[in-house]
Amino acid sequence: MAAMRYSRLLCAAALIGCTGAESRGGNTGGTLAMSTGGDPDVLVPSLLQTTTAAQVVDLVYDRLADIGDSLNVVGDHGFTPRLADRWTWAKDSLSIAFHLNPNAKWHDGQPVRSNDVRFTIASTKDSTLGSPSASVITSIDSVSTPDSATAVYWFHARSPQQFYDAVYQLPIMPEHVWKGIAPAGWRGSEAAKHPIGSGQYRFVRWIPRAAVELTADTANYRGAPKLSRVIWSIAPDFNSALTRFLTGETDLFPQLRPENLREVAKHPELKTQSYRGLAYVFAQFNLRNPADHDRPHPIFGNRELRRALTMATDRAALVRSVFDTLALPALGPTLRVYNTTDPNLQQIPFDLPRARAILDSLGWRVTTSDSMRTRNGRPLRFTMSVPNTSQVRVQLAVLLQEQFRRAGVKMDVEQLDFPVLAEKDRKRTFDATIGQWNTQPSPGAVLGSWGLAGSRAANGNNFGTYENPVFDANVDSALASFDLAARKRYFTTAYQTIIQDAPAIWIAEPRQIVGYHSRLQLGTLRPDAWWIHIPDWSIPRDKRIARDSVPAAPAPAGSAGQKAP
Amino acid sequence: MATEVARPRESPLGITVRGLLRQRSSRVALILLGVIVLIGLLAPLLAPYDPAAQPDIVGLKSLPPSLAHPFGTDPYSRDVLSRVLYGARLSLTIGILATFVSLTVGVAYGSVAGYLGGVVDGVMMRVLDALLSIPRLLLLLGVLVAWPHLSIGALILFLGLTGWFGLSRIVRGQVLALKHAEFVTAAQALGASRRRILVKHLLPNLVSPIAVAATLGVAHVIVLEAGLSFLGIGVPQPLASWGNIIQDGVDQIATLWWMSFFPGLFMVLTVLTLNILGEALRDSYERRS
Amino acid sequence: MIRYIARRLAQAAVIVAIVATITFALIHIAPGDPFSAVLDNPNVSETVRQTLRAQYGLDRPIPEQFVRYVGALAHGELGWSFSHDRPVLEVLGSALPNTLLLMVVALVGGFALGIFVALVQVARRGSIADRILGGITLLFFSMPDFWLAILALLALTYWLPIFPVGGAVDPVMHEYMSLGGRLLDRLKHLALPALTLTLLASATVARYQRAALLDVLPADYIRTARLKGLTERQILRRHALRNALLPIITLLGLSFPALLTGAFFIERIFAWPGMGYAVVNAISTRDYPLVVGGVIIGSIMVTVGSLIADLLYAWADPRLRGH
């Protein structure tokens, strides 16, 4: 009920948006052009794995409710209505009934119904789809549809995060579009190339490796967004993307690095804003043999060796060199932003002599010829695979190469295009890789990347196949606790376990910097998705430039007009 | 096209070299090239720092040119001047060795085709035409993509195996002309062995085309290897080649201009001198005949 | 003449056949199965996999695979690009016009500029102007294509933001421009890559043409013309140039490989969406069928180019026409 009152208040304040007619006057209109170096991989919510795709999907599709800037994941505090205008908890909390906003429509004019909700969850759980999101919605048993406006989520058990699990992970997809296509074929289908959602932006076009364009859905049930167009200008590399931003071809560049700030400062019309991201960067080892997954990795299968490699790494210097002051050394597969993370987690110290001693004791001796270690004729040598699109990861790889060399370890650096690396990750055919997880507001997401389920699932994200039941048990216990102190205790034990097992070298927690044109009025930059408030961004009339004059594309017939709530 | 086989009176190499030195531009080019080769040879002595060393990845990275680092440092705090000097060494070595491979194969192929003549020659020439129709870069791309982790040796081999086509034509022409030359038939009638004919008549006439092909060939390979390293499929990290260094800085071209400028400058100078010399050699060779 | 054309066409066909054999050999000599990247990829649909298996007979012995391969080529089937999720022919076919546009502009511009420079040099041979121009052409001739492109990008999009930063059109505004605006937008994006390639091409043409003209000038009929009292410029225009035209046509045919190679690097640096850009991206994605497809199409282009050049030569050279 509070939700309903809230939306009415919104409408009263933003009169124009509520009529549903094409907006005039005020701050509506304008184009947001964003520079990016990455093409989306696929525009299907349950399949995407790139940030650019997530950005497009978050604007074209809606979730049942939005998490709110406080990023609370326990219960439903802070969540605001989206496709669901209200929801009711069952007394035993084993189910939640969501009532759908009757004005919600798909971009092709069809109304949003509870069938769509059920279909979204069911298809994501379908193993033939191979969705990476399947492992994070395991607490949901199913969705029932007592009527076309109500979708009831049924849970296996009551848990602190059940609302978050139900609502945050997946936007709702239209059943009538996807029902007839076999899940295995979703990725390459025509529907994937022209996504139809219910969000405040409609899809216009996607020219691979060149551009993605969205236009304002002026007849949207939540009201028209202020900006008429959102465009991603996809550049072949970081430098071109940055230059397009600096020369004014685009309005925003979300990946500024510390050394670029000097350049940006030279342009008075450009501003920057930094915010805490939800990402951590790490160097991951494959614990299984890439050629035969049943056998341990000849080098990384040994825990002591992994710990030695971690000891040989001067993480503080790495972070300082690559990120300057814009990152903190990572504590583990977690972030300081979570209230369940103990900032004093005990780390494996940087101790090169001790690392060398450990390697010696394991039988890896230094040969005189090239000061590299060998054991029984086999050299201590492996390949680190990184995406060539990420300057940060390439740099880290080269720096690590040198650090390992000092310990007598030979590391080759292999730069791959992102899709190739993603496939290597998926098939677990890599030796080591530098990865970055853009995590979720819930610390429980760590199970997907480092837990048993993520390791066993065919498309799971635990690429290194780290499996420690103690870790999983503690995380599960933490997630089941409603008491904050208990949660924190369990998480601390879990984190200490995985830190000491050293399946990866935990490198950095970066801050993000967004560079933008000063005529843009930005909203809050939420740590998990800085782009989520784009529908509320605006450009004042008196500051408009040439590209702002393009109006929103007219809505296709059948979706025009709607009743005010 | 019938080529007049000149009867050598004095060493043709001597003639061409003398013609070469007569021009001032060639003399300057020769000296400059000599300096660069010397730099390459003496790189370990001349380089102020270890080209692969990352002394201070925090304080010394991405610095513009200064007294301590005349060519600046790269994002890994490596000294660019040292890398360029070692790059000279590596790029020149690759160029020379690859060209050596090209010359060997080219001479062999052309001689065999010219000597055997007839159908075999026809087939060999058709294959040659086909190979010539694939731009060298494409051929290399096709090969290098299939073999991802190539060693330097393999790289040299492939570079060499893609650059012999033009020379083999010339060699074949010379061999054919020789086959039909009168004095050869006479000499054979007199009992001169094939080997003697080869040494006394064929080789001297090949020296100049080979010298020209060698000089221009090295220039081509240097540029090609730089291009491949720039695309990421040439010389691997942490070795330094001129193309490699440019690739390290390409993501931040605007702010790290010194990483594109200096290796490129050296490359242009080397290729320039080689081109001047090669063309001068060719001019004096053609003028002679 | 007809016989000559027929003979040349047959030669061209043979050449393409040999190229196909070479690429087939490359595919199968390489370590690992080149198709495994496609077949093992869970994202590739079953229909594509079955089509590939049927087309290439991947379980059959090598000789049969070769026959199928050639057969597929003859039908214009170049395989499946899994990084684009479309047939290779479609990917390269849509990219090819952009490369051709670049090459044609560079060809015309390069030859025009090159011949002009050569004429100027020959008209004032031995003078300071000749030497300076000679030095400049030598400089551009010795420059690696990608380095010049980098310098151009740096200088003219960054330090002096005159041209747009890469791409063929402005992704933000192009669809909303008027027809004239769209044309201008395309021209603005074409300018820098075309300029770079033109400069490189003109250097080669200028050097070659200068040498050709200097060869022709001492000829007897030129001396006669001089004795008759014609000015140097008239001589150049009327006699020398026409006879030096033949080498131009030869050079035309010879310049195709270099132009194509240059286009590759320039497309990469300026993000020009042509065949070179597609192939360079295919390298990092290990999209082997696309790379091989690019090799085949590239050599077909070169073969056709030299065929056209040879036919032009035969038509232009009165000596040959009498064949």
Task: Provide the residue-averaged pLDDT of chain B.
Answer: 82
Structural class of chain A: alpha+beta
Rg of chain B, Cα atoms, Å: 22 Å
Q: Regions of chain B with pLDDT < 50 over 5+ consecutive residues?
A: none
Description:
The complex is a heterotrimer of chains A (565), B (289) and C (323). With 565 residues, chain A is of the alpha+beta class. Chain A is built from 18 helices and 23 strands. Mean pLDDT of chain A is 87; it is low at 1-25 and 559-565. Chain B is mainly α and 289 residues long. Chain B contains 12 helices and no strands. The longest helix of chain B is centred in the last third of the chain and has 38 residues, at 194-231. The model of chain B has no long low-confidence stretch (mean pLDDT 82). Chain C has 13 helices and 2 strands, in the order ααααββααααααααα. In chain C, β1 (80-81) and β2 (86-87) form a beta hairpin. In chain C, α5 (88-123) packs antiparallel against α10. Chains B and C meet through α5, α6, α10 and α12 of B and α1, α6, α7, α10 and α11 of C.
Topology, element by element:
The complex is a heterotrimer of chains A (565), B (289) and C (323).
Chain A: H1 2-13, H2 15-19, E1 31-36, H3 51-60, E2 65-66, E3 80-81, E4 84-89, E5 95-100, H4 114-125, E6 140-147, E7 150-155, H5 162-168, H6 175-178, H7 190-193, E8 201-207, E9 211-216, E10 229-234, H8 238-246, E11 252-253, H9 261-265, E12 270-276, E13 279-285, E14 288-289, E15 292-296, H10 303-311, H11 315-323, E16 327-329, H12 352-361, E17 365-366, E18 373-375, E19 378-379, E20 381-387, H13 391-406, E21 410-416, H14 418-427, E22 432-438, H15 446-450, H16 452-456, H17 469-480, H18 484-501, E23 504-517
Parallel strand pairs in A: 1-10, 20-21, 20-22
Antiparallel strand pairs in A: 2-3, 4-5, 5-7, 6-7, 8-9, 9-10, 11-23, 12-23, 13-22, 13-23, 14-15, 16-23, 17-18, 18-19
Helix pairs in contact in A: 10-12, 17-18
Chain B: H1 12-22, H2 24-41, H3 43-46, H4 80-116, H5 118-133, H6 136-146, H7 152-161, H8 165-180, H9 182-189, H10 194-231, H11 242-249, H12 257-288
Helix pairs in contact in B: 1-12, 2-4, 2-12, 4-5, 4-7, 4-8, 4-10, 4-12, 8-10, 10-11, 10-12, 11-12
Chain C: H1 2-29, H2 36-39, H3 46-56, H4 62-74, E1 80-81, E2 86-87, H5 88-123, H6 128-142, H7 145-159, H8 179-216, H9 220-228, H10 232-270, H11 275-284, H12 288-316, H13 318-321
